Amino acid sequence: MQVKFKIFRFNPDLDARPYHQDFELDVANGMTILDCLIYIKNEQDGSLTFRRSCRSGICGSCAVRVNHRAMLACKTQALDVVIDGVVLVEPLVHLRPIKDLAVDLEPFYQTIEKVQPWLVTDHTNEEIPAISSKDSKTLNKVSDCIFCGACYSDCNVIDVDRSFAGPSAIAKTYRFACDPRDILGSERIKQLVESGLYKCPVDQECEIACPKDISLRRDVIEELRCTAVTGNFGPLPAHKRLIMSVLDTGASVPVTTTPAVDMYKDHEHDFHGIKELFIKEFEGEPVAEVVLFFGCIINRRQQDTAAAIINIFQHNKVAVHIPKKQVCCGSPFMRVGMRETMKPFVTQNFEIFNTYANNGVTHILTSCSGCNSTFRHDYPALALEYGLNFDFQIYDVGEYMTIMDEDGTLNLKDMKNIAMKTMYHYPCHIRASDLDESIYVNLIRKIPGIELVQVPSSGLCCGGGGGVRAAYPDISDKLAIRRMEIARDEGVDGLLTNCPFCILSFERGLGLKKEAGEAMDFGIFDFYKIFSMAFGEDEMIKESY
Amino acid sequence: MITHDLLIIGGGLAGMRAALEAGKNVDVAIISKLHPLRSHSGAAQGGIASVLDGWAQKIGDSLESHIQDTVKGSDYLGDQDAIEILCNEAPENIKILDRMGALFSRTDEGWISQRDFGGHSYARTCYASDKTGHILLQTLYEQMMKQRVKVYPEWHVVSLIIHENKCRGLVAYDMARGELQVIRAKAILFATGGYGRAYGITSNAHANTGDGLALAYRAGVPLQDMEFVQFHPTGLYKHGILITEGARGEGGYLINKDGERFMERYAPNKMELASRDVVSRAVQTEIDEGRGIDGYVHLDLRHLGKELIMSRLSQIHDIALSFSGIDCTKDPIPIQPTAHYSMGGIPTDVDGRVSGVNSLFAAGECACVSVHGANRLGGNSMLETIVFGSRAGIKAAEYVKRTALQPIPADAVPLIEQEIKLMINSKGKENAADISAELQSNMTLKCGIFRDIDGLTQMQQLIIELKERFNNIGIKDKGMTFNTELIEALELKNILDFSQIIVAGALAREESRGAHSRTDFPNRDDEHWMKHTLAYKSEQGPVLDYKPVTITRYNPQRRVY
Q1: CATH 3.40.50.1860 intervals, chain A
Q2: In angstroms, rounded to a whole number, what is the distance separating the alpha carbons of residues B161 and B271?
Q3: Roughly how many angstroms between the first and final C-alpha of chain B, as a whole number?
Q4: List of chain B residues whose C-beta atoms are within 8 Å of the C-beta of residue A179
Q5: Separation of alpha carbons A117 and A103, rounded Å
Q6: CB–CB of B106 and A133 under 8 A?
Q7: Exposure check for chain B: N or C terminus, fewer CB within 10 A?
């Protein structure tokens, strides 16, 4: 296949500033990006400069950005990354380009050196100490890091705060802090909390970049946060206030206006001992019967979103059960390392879900991406730990709509035209649930009138996750504003997303810009409300609301 | 002028191990064309062999057995005094690595786990999953940071400064700054790795161009046993990327197109775990005689189960998937032999001292002590880097302590600067990459696993022609900052030089021994050829000489597995 390589060029001996140069070549199946770069260097332009050595994904020399994302050139199949016949190859960012694709990695290496990256022991004994096979396996996985710098390049926090340790240095800290032979242990964690363990919004851009598939969010950052809590170094005061409030009110935000579950009084009744709303306002048999778990933000702050979700299901003849006693999923606890404190919440939600499951309603749908990823990833392990049954299935609302569409039960006829040019913002928690971006993009494309612009890029973080908004509002705001600017530069009217946290962050960002006298002409569109509009608003629900 | 007591060229396992030892007593620095973390030691997968107390007694293993296996594996070309040191000092070195923080895989009881490896009579290879080299490289680099050893990363050494038969320093190209720099030192230690890039199909990194060997050779040091190049039986088809011997150690099968475990016919006792040269010849024979599948055979791991593959061979799973699109839990991996390890190199004594020029030391793959003789056993190469890296570091430190710094001749830089300017400004029409490709593919074909007089003679002629063409190469990149095109040309010059020595040694050695297999001389000939080759530089090309093998207790025997 004929491919145009658009390559970043900069020779400090000749060029005042960098530019992009096009190279055409015939790419055969099986060729990696590195193969292509070598081919260009050998056959077309010997001065093209890049690092490479092992060409088998272990030396970490050839990390570059392909289509705005960092990856190893040698581990990337070229034909997988061609967009409209073009592949864009650029150097890593956050590091100074030396020449073409080679950057100065020194600042990155320094982040590693800062964490005292060597084993500190007091044992002078002759014998080799035993290490449990479990410890050895845990450390083994984190030790995969080859220090290629890809994560440093694509880290959102580094982009706005260079004092942040960065993913690689945090992984290196973990490797020693959790080594039973190391005597610094908790001292390392304490220092790490100071150098920004809680600055990470758990957006996982680093995981996407990591060529060794290290699970930086769950296996490293969240584990370290748990260790920090055990050692009393975490969470931060702002997190403690938030957690106290959750413990007080059962939700991540206090009640200020009537929560969605307390509306629609006509629909209240008792389902096998559960107080709930049961809503079925359409004629005939339901296509399906599901449980809706709104999540705290939608329930208590975004009630109109709740109404929109109900509309979506009424329109598609799905009867919904909404348990009134749904409590915080536990995500705020998990994200800051307080896994041990969340048990009562988990137990209560399990009791509700299992009651439904025992009575034939096994599909639990979440409208909050944070709840979804907690239910999907954390609840199975917690169920085992607490000895609870897990006999139900968790779905995200958008995911469920897609399944219905595949089954032919999603009613896409006579959808209203919604004229707008927008970009879908793919929430990190949705990604953490292993739900692909394409699920949502494909759904949105079914709405007539919407022009969707998607760009391959990093820097797509709202800044609202991982407890960052509570503890480091400044980082959070910068990330939100930067994300909106990336979209605005593509000429869209606004961002369309399905995560209540993202929406809150963006709205806050817009407010700040306005206060600063730099108001952005930019909208934040709620996925559910847009669908509800496209399906036609249901008058019954509106009145009731 | 930058000055150090001891300068180590190369930042892989041997170089860092030497630096850590020497650094305890003298001012040492590492200079390397790569950042140390990018060194090819990191690609070593399988493990590091050592008899360890406790487990050894349980399975009946002993130091004596490790020595015997290594002598036999070397096809009796290894120097037995050096081999005894290698094996005897292994256990202490494993302890040292553990104390430094190396994460060896553990048994359920928490002890260092040891696995089977080709040519070893007992399961004695310590490992860290299938990325042992990566883990050791990380560990040594951690210690380098702790000890604050000075490193000059991405400085490419272009020439040694030798005066009155004494090395006084070197000239290096600081790539990022685009400058030539002189570094003075009382001694220089080579740890520049292997020369696998002489071959088209190789497991070696692009960087493995044997630069240290070429530097030493040009300085008047002979090169030893260069014709002995190990071909690893399981390179990923077409790419040559290594699929660790650990895959067979864990129980993987080699299967031909008829579904036969063909090793039955070649090594009925050890099967897939026979010595590497034996298995490589078997694989190549199957392919050559039409029992391969389009130029490869299969390495089948499926019967090992997904859980074992994902826990002990995860990197192999990743490599097969990323580069060939094969999920090895579901399909067999296509493999072919790949140029892997360089047994030959700079001759040293057991303390890393280079014969010929004073103040030079060498350790690791670039050195020829010789512990591997005609064929290296798996698990012994990382062991060599650690054991002899340490010994060379200690001796080099002792040497510089009792040696005074020597003045540098004034013309050191201007001469090499002139040479490099000529190269960059040349109006030549030849493309270095074309010359490289032609050399490498022909080396695989004519000086690979099987060799004969016709192929070798043709190859000898071809190298002379390629050297002519090299004199006429052009370089498009005229700047001095990070000029990788210039570096590739300098590397090619090195490859051409030692390829000529490999071929000369192979042509002269009219026998088959270890990795050197002459179809026209299929038997080992101890009477005439149980000796080391030495190649000296001359105007007319390499001049060969020989020296005896050191024998302590083990007389040559027929080598069967």
Answers
A1: 420-535
A2: 50
A3: 56
A4: 101, 103
A5: 23
A6: yes
A7: N
CA atoms within 13 A on the CB side of B327: 4
* CATH 3.10.20.30-classified regions of chain A: 2-104
Looking at residue B523, its amino acid is: N
Q: Does B110 touch chain A (CB under 8 A)?
A: yes
Contact A43 B433 (CB under 8 A): yes
Distance (Å, whole) CA B113 – CA B94: 12
**How far is the CA of A298 from the CAs of A120, A255, A473, A475, A541, in angstroms?**
48, 12, 21, 24, 16
Q: Is A118 in contact with B206 (Cβ distance < 8 A)?
A: no
Q: State the DSSP string of A214-281.
A: --IIIIIIIHHHHHHHHTT--S-HHHHHHHHHHHHHSSSS--SS--GGGS-GGGEEEETTEEEEEE--
Please give the CATH number for the structural domain made up of A107-230. 1.10.1060.10
Q: Which residue has the tokens 């050829």?
A: B529
Complex ipTM: 0.95
**Structural domains in chain B plus CATH codes:** 234-340 (3.90.700.10), 412-522+533-545 (1.20.58.100)
Tens of pLDDT, residues A147-177: 999 999 999 999 999 999 999 999 999 999 9
Chain A residues with CB inside 8 Å of B96's CB?
Answer: none
Please write the tens of the pLDDT for every residue from B288-327. Answer: 999 999 999 999 999 999 999 998 898 899 899 888 889 9
Specify the DSSP element, H or E, that contains B274.
none
Residue-wise burial string across B524-542, b where 16 or more C-beta atoms lie within 10 A, e elsewhere: bebeebbebbbbebeeebb
Taking the mean position of all CA atoms in its chain, how far away is CA A317?
Answer: 31
Closest CA to A150 of A199, A80, A75, A92: A92
Q: What is the CATH number of domain A420-535?
A: 3.40.50.1860
The label of the residue with tokens 């030539």 reads B180
Active site amino acids of B: 276
Alpha helix segments (H runs only) across A393-521: 397-407, 428-432, 437-444, 468-471, 473-488, 500-515
B99/A47 Cβ within 8 A: no
Structure token pair of residue B504: 């000369």
Which pLDDT belongs to residue A539?
45
Q: Are B39 and B137 in contact (CB under 8 A)?
A: yes
Q: pLDDT tens, A235-288?
A: 999 999 999 999 998 888 888 999 999 999 999 999 999 999 999 999 999 999
> What six digits make up the tokens of B11?
């930042």
Q: Which residues contact B289 (CB under 8 A, 6 or more apart)?
A: none
How far is the C-alpha of B106 from the C-alpha of A128, rounded, in Å?
11
Task: Tell me the mean pLDDT in the region B123-149.
Answer: 96
Facing residues of A274 across strands? Answer: A271
- The contacts of residue B415 (CB under 8 Å, 6+ apart) are none
Q: What is the 3-class SS of B203-272, one letter each residue?
A: CCCCCCCCHHHHHHHHCCCCEECCCCEEEEEEEECCCCCECCCHHHHCCCEEECCCCCCCHHHHCCCCHH
Q: Are A66 and A59 in contact (CB under 8 A)?
A: no
Give the nearest partner residue to B484 out of A30, A49, A121, using CB atoms: A49
Q: Which of residues 369-388 of B touch A (CB under 8 A)?
A: none
In this structure, what token pair is assigned to residue B181?
């720099």
CATH number listed for the domain at residues A2-104: 3.10.20.30
**Spatial distance between the Cα atoms of B44 and B244, rounded to a whole number of angstroms:** 8
Rounded to two decimals, the pTM is 0.94
Are B125 and B378 a contacting pair, CB within 8 Å?
Answer: yes
